[in-house]
Each structure stands twice: as C-alpha cells, then as structure tokens.
Amino acid sequence: MPFRSLAWAPSGALRIIDQTRLPNEERWLELDRVEAVVEAIRMLRVRGAPAIGVAAAMGLVASLLASTKLARERFLALVDAAARELADARPTAVNLRWAMDRMLRVAHAAQGASPAIFEALHAEAETIRAEDEAMCLAMGEAGQVVLRGFEVRGAGFEGTARPEPRTVRILTHCNTGALATAGIGTALSIVFVAHERGVPVHVWVDETRPLLQGSRLTAWELAKAGVPHTVLPDGAAASLMRAGEVDLVLVGADRIARNGDTANKVGTFPLAIAAAHHRVPFFVVAPSSTFDASCPDGAAIPIEQRAAAEVTRPFGQRVAPAESPVFNPAFDVTPGTMIAGWVTERGVVRPPFDHG
Fold it and tell me: Of 5, 78, 249, 316, which sits 20 to 30 A from 177 (CA to CA)?
C-alpha cells in the first residue's frame, strides 16, 4: 500500500490519517494525549478492529512520554487509568481491550523506575503494530485459497475445469483495508495480494450506511492501489447476487465468539442471508486477536449504539425529520452457521476454534 494509516510521529506522538475527512481531504493528526486518542477512536477518525487496538497501544505510549519523571507507583497508576479509558472507548471490538490488557501486563511486569516501564511499553506497542502488519500479509496469503476455482471460467470451487482466465468478483462491506489495520488489511489483504500477483479481481463495494465507509474509504483505497471496483448501494447487493455477478463475499470482523458467531459492521448479516440464499460463499477475514474465547455466542457480544445524528444528519445534512426516533446499531451479528470459513493468519479455520 502507498501509505500507513498508523505511525509514530518524530515527536513520539501517534500519527493517524483522519478517516472522517476522506476521500475529500488527506489530513494527518498527531495525538499525544489520552483524551485525544479516545476522541479519535469514538469519532471514527481511526476505526477498524485491528487498527483501534494498535492505535490504543501506541496512543497510550504517546500520552506517557511527558510523565516518565514520575515515581514508579504514580506512573503505574497513570498507566492503569489511561488504559481503562482507552479500553472503554468502544465496546464491541475485542481487539481494543485485548491490546490494553497486554500493555498493562507488560507495565506491571517491568522492572525499574518509570523510564524503564515506558521503554517496555513502547517496545510492546511497536511489537503489537508489527505483529498486526505481519498478520495482514499472512491473511492475504492464506486467503488466496478461497479465490481458487473462481479464477477459471466454468470451474467449480476446486477448479477442476480447463483453465481459462476470468475475473474473480468479490463483494465486500465496510472497510477492511490498510485504513482498518496497521498493515494492508484483513479482507482486502486477500484482494491486494491477488492483484499484485496478477490475478484479475473486481471488487463490488457496498457503500455501507450510514457513514459510507465503503464508498468513502474502501473505494479510496482500491483506487489508490489500482484495483478495479464498483460502488453500489447496500440494498443492491442481493440483486447483484441473484444476477450471478458475485463469486464470493469477504468481510472483516470486530469480535468472533467461541461458536463462530461474528460481529461486524451493521449490514453484514443481511449479506450473509442473501449469500446463503444464492449459494455464494461467505468468508470472514480477521486476525486471531479478534477471536474472543470468553464470549460463548453472539448474544453475549455488546453492540454499540451510535448517535442518532449519524442517520438523521449524515455529514451535517438533515435527511430525516428532527422528531423521528432512530435505531442506529454500529454492528450486527452473523451466525457462525452461515459462514463458510474464517481466514486468519494461521489459515482458513472453522469451529471449534483453538484459542490456545
């Protein structure tokens, strides 16, 4: 990818691209206060389950840079408070709390005074960032298996027919690329790896209402990478499948329960229903950190409710009466029984998952 959505600024601050400004403006922010990182996560300036976990880890470190002269106990108390605030910024994505739990373990295990604790935290945040980058590439590699068979005209899933090149037509929802991770993405990593290797792909991009993360962000990334794509209204996806124009669906995830139930951007569940009806393979692509062994099923996944204004006044333009009530869940849950497989950095897996 021609950019990184998360990086260290020369000052030690967390540097992010403000995703609320895309695609019209590429504005970069440097954040060095917990409050600023929390605001960026809540307001979707940085978003995507892997990305907000990495951003929280790096943002925690950035916020502590000016406090390393504090006594050890006071410094640890500051770390604890900041980590709690960051972990509570958004409730559904498990990666956020996972990253903060990991940072807290490192902080309390570190020996020595505050500067030594800070260095340990900095190293751990960088490790989390580098791991996510590597996991993205591994998911892209592992996911090539789900494209096989669609690359040849007239072939079934196993690709037994006489090879004849054709375009693999992939439908995706929300944004699962470099903007949602520290690397090249989750679901879109499969697309980017295939495109780089010369596999002809075409991506159908759900606009993803109400905040249009598909049309604003995914289409922006695909255009930058030169990947053929078409933006469509969310409501047109089922008709596209009925017309035989979709080979498979690739989506990301914010939390995956022990039984395979998967929380992702609202609108994913209807896609799974349409895909099942039209016998289109439906895959979830997510790193192992998105699997929550403590969550038995989808009913136990907390679903974040977003502000009414995202629906009634998207981007500042009123599109519904002021007095109209609003139901605006950020996510929905797709039953694990409707998912063909989960592509992780370890390969394509199915329940029961190995959480070891």
Answer: 316
